[in-house]
Each structure stands twice: as structure tokens, then as C-alpha cells.
Fold this protein.
Amino acid sequence: MESLARFFRSPIAGPLSALILAVIVVSLSTDRFFTAQNLANVSLQVSGVAIAAIGSTLVILTAGIDLSPGSLVALTASILAVLVKILGLPLPLGIVLALIMGAGLGAVNGGLVAYGRIPSFIATLATFSIFRGLAFLVTKGTPIFSISPNLDRLFYGRMAGIPLPVIYVAVLYSITFVFLKYTSPGRAIYAVGGNESAARLSGIQVKRIHLLVFVLAGLTAAIAGVLIAARLNSGSPNYGVAMELATIAAAVIGGASLAGGEGNIVSTLFGALTVAVVQNGLNLNAVPAAFQNITLGVIIVLAVGVDMWSGDVGRGLSRVFSFRRKESG
Amino acid sequence: MAIPGRVLRRGRACQTLKPLISHDSQDSRPLWELREISKAFPGVQALDKVSLSLRQGQIHALLGENGSGKTTLAKCLAGAHQPDSGEMLLQGEPVVLDHPLDAVAHGVATIYQELSLVPALTVAENIFLGRPLTKAKTGLIDWEQMRRMTRVTLQELAIQMDPDAVVQSLSGAEQQLIEIAKAISLESSLVIMDEPTAALGLAETRRLHELIRRLTKRGKAILYISHRLDEVFQIADVITVLKDGLRIDTSPLAELDMSDVVQMMVGIDIEQHYPKEHNARSEVCLQVRDLVTENGVNGVSFDVHAGEVFGLGGMVGAGRTEIARALYGVDRLEGGTMQLFGKSVRFSAPTEAVAAGVGLVPENRKADGLFFNFEGPPNITISRLRTLLRGPFLSLVAERQAGREYVDRLRITPTSLERTVEFLSGGNQQKVVIARWLFSKAKLLILDEPTQGVDIGAKLEVYRVINELTEQGIGIILISSDYPELLAISDRIAIIRDGRILHVAPANELNEYKLLSIASGADASNGNGTLHM
């Protein structure tokens, strides 16, 4: 009972409950959910959003917002296609260059915010448009197919029977978890988001932290872009449309506060999985696409709304359980 | 001479008051009568049964040290605070002011210390904020009429200003004048001015005083709050002195002289225990020469010795916090030099100050000091995380140990180890911020109002911590508006006014009377060190 009480107070309680609830509802609605094939599908589908959501979460932790990852996904996939297919660069070099470019464009976002003192919403709204435009520019507006015969293995390959994208997600989330919890810059991210003025007066280089989270957000969006290019073995300026909304939704459903300083990376993964499971359930039940968008919106409102009231519910539950323990003890 | 009391509706200017017999109408009924007003805030009795009468045509000055209750009393009259007990009578009729708009409806106009203008709007829009003039037929805003009325109001006050000028493009003094014009255009019968000259120069102050006299001729009552005694003695008819929320005296100006007033403001304090240890060493910790900033530090030089508590005394707005900001790399230096333990330093950002071993406990610990999203230990370790590194990773075990050590040492409540600091008392929160600088091994610590808003017990704890710090040879710059505290805890005190040091003396050669005289400008010699008493 004690551990149960502690669970209801912990920050992952809400997002994990939401995920479990989503899994239960979807598996009741159709018996095709709990098949190995379908679960593998869900994990492949969620990988791109989940990886880009790491960057969105880092930015949100500093009380900023990043609207550009969807456009950056399209630009990265397009650049990769151009570098490898048209310029004939070796695939590994093309991927490395695409990732460096992603981090560099993230630094542009971060530079505008930290040193140009442009609010992150505005700065990334601008680059949201610019990056998409650049993607159209480098591809001349048409998708580039069959980038490389070796590329799709990065997506469809398996290691020890586990799909590679699942491994990427697991590795990147583990690294981020350690980074946030066990390193100085990770701690500084929470400090800047919690109280920027106090962070500055405590000697933290606040501007560098703002720059850092946008560089990492650019990098994770670029990884997602490469992954999506690998999935279709092509680059297109139309990839990643509205993806920034999915990544922000994942962070928010995971309990990250847009005011900054609150949130954790594991919950973001639960948030991304919840969205994926619900979308999968709607697909399996042949619900029209229009309702899928509507459902995502409803989930966001419910997740944040429940979080607002859950203080009370969670405290109530934890009190009930700790109370029973006392009674029995 | 009774005017029947009327129930006034919120949001409508009180226009029913005709001027009573103005001026020397001591026998007539006062415009406002406050009876035994009390107001408490957590840990402080801000007002304790204060009574006051305000008469038409009279300038009533309210005097007292920082924290004596002047502003609280003004805010009760302005409807911004509600008294816990006591009565407020407007021309003999009891009224309750639940909201600032109630006060406005009852003819009370208030000019606060902090400006209440909307920076992005024009002068005219600000003056008619919340009550725009409209055309009778269409209900649309009558811009022409608003401009004309604004021009008339400004002219009346002999203020040269374009009604269409955007407020943020004007100087602080000009904004203050708009604030006054706004209050006067409200058809008020009582104008409350809280430190109206704080942002004004000499010429503007004189103009304001002329203006105030003109207002009294029109039968308005003025409540004038200031800590500038010289000013008050030029303008007031009646003076009331507050101390620690109590009314000490109310007398006509003619019956008072300045030294009486200072004596009353200082009062005789209830004996308080200040556990002061003298740990100053000969070694100089910080040497400052000719410090100048844009933000109002005008050539400041002083030394702080290792283990010394160097106090900065002065009124609110005198420039004490600005000196701290300059030393800490927050404000850019325009001139001057600094040496820390003999080494020349120049900080362009707090990061550099922290790296060099300077710490700041800011005045507003909630806004500038604490991380409410962290428990106690991360709040304590944030300025020196590198000591927790084991390889590239932070050791959370070491952090917990350090947290426990400082929680024990500074007697911070153990709940701070488990819960975010939001839930701690003010005293515990303050000790968490101080612990941060102990942990980071600061050599010079700036404490800006370290005991503001904490209870007596926690104050003693803070003094004890100061002793512990000085014993280790840490130099301390103490900014405090609590003069008895400043006198008792400091080794030496610099008295600041207008961004300058007027006087430096060992604390035991000063007393509250001297301190206040120099800081408030009541001292004729203006602080060149030759006080005759």
C-alpha cells in the first residue's frame, strides 16, 4: 500500500495511467490490437514522433517552445536525398552531414532566442516556415525516391529480433534520462525553466542553456527526419507536416509544464505512446481521418485538464491508501 | 455644516462634495476620519489602532521609517487593503472600501510609489483609463474631447506635454506628473501621494509643491507620504509620525522641529537581542573605487574587510540595491575599479562574479533566489555543481549528503530534503539561499534585506549564520532597512543617498537618530561627517 501511495504522487503516475487506459480501451474495441504484427507496427509508427519529442521536451523544460521540428524533419530528409541521390555522397557521410545540419539549424533557433532575444514562439514560427521553404527549394518541390538501397535497412532492420527504431528510441531516451538527471547542464535546464532570474543570479549561463536545448531539439528532429527518409527510402518536402503538434502533445500529455521546470523524459515517451495507441485503435476500427484529428485534440485537453485537477485526485488517492495503511498498522 | 451621507455607487466619481469652509477649519468635521485602524500581515502587525483625521484644504504628512506602516495606511484608504478592524468615516458616515474602485467612487485619488500607467498608451488614454469619454449619440470614444480635457488638465498644472505622446517615451519624472494629473482629473476630494518626489528632480519637486498648494486652495485634502524630512517641512500643515504600526504623534507643523520628528521616528526600541560577534580581520576582502553605473550609482568607494559585516544604510531607492547589482555584474559599470583579495576583477555577468567567489542573497527571494521546482538540496548545490561530479555525472548521493549537512548546520527544517522549497517558511527559504553560498564557498556575500518578512526566531537564526560566515573570514555586505538590525549586526556602516556614500562610520559610533538624519536629508550638514547634536 505504501508503494501504491507513492506511485500516485510520482510524476509518471498520470501519463502511465493514461497509456494503460488507452491500451485497455483499444484492446477491448478490437482483437487485432494485441497481435505481434500490430504492436510492431505501432512501435515503428511512433519512433519518429517519439525521437523528435525529446527535443520538444527539452525546450519546454526551459519554458520555451519549438514549432520547427516538423519542417526540420522535411528539410533533413530532403537534404539527405539530395546529398546521396543527386550529389552521390556515400550514405554514412550523407547521414552525418544531415544530422550536423539539423543541429546547426537548431543553433539558429537557439541563437535567435538566446542572443537575438526573440521569443521562442516567434523565432521558431519563422523557422517553421523557412525550413519548409528550404526543403522545397533543395528538392525543387518534388519527392526524391530510392535514395539508397542500404537506407531502408536502418528502419526495417532488426537487432536480436527487435526492430531497430525501437532500439533507437530506447537508446536516445536512456541517454536523455541520464543527461537530465545526472549532468550539470541537465540540472541547469530545470533551473532555467524553474526560475530564470534565480538561475542567472546563481551563476548559470542562461543563454548557453537556451542555445543548448535548441541545438539538441534540432539534432533529434534531424534524427527523426533521417528515420522517416529511411522508412520510405525517399526525401520529400511534405514530410513531417503538423509533426510539431504531435511532439508538443507528447510532452504535454507526459505532464511537462509549458511554464518550464516541470516534466520528465520518461513521461514524454508515455505521452507519445498514448497518442500512437489511440491513433492505431482508430485505424483498426476504420474511423475516418477527420475523427482522428478531433480525438488527438480531445486527448490533449483531457491530459492537461486531468493534470490540473489531478493534484486533488492524486493526493486524495494517496491519502486513501496511506490512511488504510495506518489503520491496518 | 452637515452634508447628508450618500451611498455612492462604484465607478462614479464623487461630485457631490461642495467645498466646505476650507483652510483653518479645525473645528469643522474632518473630511475623512480613521478610527483605530488595525491591519496585520503574516508575522507583522503593520498597523495597530491608528487614528487619523484628514481635513479639506490641509496637507497632512505621514512620516515614519521603512516598514512603519505608512504605505499600509495609505492602501487602506485607497481600498487596496482592507483593515482587520477599525472604522473609516467620510464626512461622518462610515464607509467600507472593498476595492480600489470603491475608494475612487468615494473621491479618493491615489498616486502610488510604483507608477500605474500603461506604457504603450498615450498621455490622454492613460488619464482617462477605464473611463473613456464617449459621444452621446454613437457611444464611440470621443478622442477630440479627451484630448481637449487632457490639455486643460495639463495646463492647469502648468505641465508642458503632448496629450498624444506615448507614455513609455517620456521620462520617469514626466510619467510621475501624468500620474498626478490623472489623480487630479478624477474630481477627487482626497489625494494620497506616496513618495511622489522619489523620481523627481529639484525643479520638478518645486513645481509639484506649487501644484499641491493650488489643490488645497480648491479645498482638496492631501495625504503626503515621504521620508524626505526637508520636503515635508516645506509643505505640510500637519504631521503624523508612525512607528512599528503605532501612531506616535500628530501635531501641526508649527509645533514641531525636525529633530523632534526624527526622535519620534526612531523611538525607543524594545530591547532586542542581537547576537553580534566581531570577526573583522585586517585583510581587505573587497576594495571598490569610484564605482559608477547607469542605474544610479554615482561614484562609490569603500573597503570590506575579511570577516567584516559592512552595512549599507539608506532609504528605499537611495541606491543600495543598485550598488549590489553593480558589484555582482548585473548592471554594467561605467567607471570604477574593484579588487577581490588584492586581485583586480571586473564582472560583466553574475556567472563571473559567482566564479570569483561572490554570492548574492537577493531582496526578493521568491522571484530571484529560489527554484520552486526543486527540493532543498538542488537549491543549495546549484551554484557549485562541479563538486558533485564523479566523472561526467552528478552524484545524487553526494548531493543528498551535502543537503543534509547544510540543513543541519543552518537548522533548516528537514522537510526541505523531501519537498520543494515552495512549501517552506520564509525563514527556512532564506536559509536555503544562504546555504547555497556556503556550499559554493563564496568569499564575499551580499545580503539584500536578508530578514525581510521572516519571523523573530528566523531572524536570530540568520544573525547566527552571519556570525558563522564572518568567523570563516567571509566578507559581508549587508543591506537592511531595519535600522536597529543594521546598527547591531554591522561592523561599519556606509550611509547612502542618491547613489552616493555620504558617510562611513563604525556602527558603534552611529545610532538610529544619526543614521536617519543623514539618510533622510534632515541633517543640515548633509552628511559630511560633522554632526552636531
Summary: The radius of gyration of chain A is 21 Å. The first helix of chain A runs from residue 2 to 9. The beta strands of chain A are 144-145, 158-159, 162-163, 234-235. The longest strand of chain A covers residues 144-145.
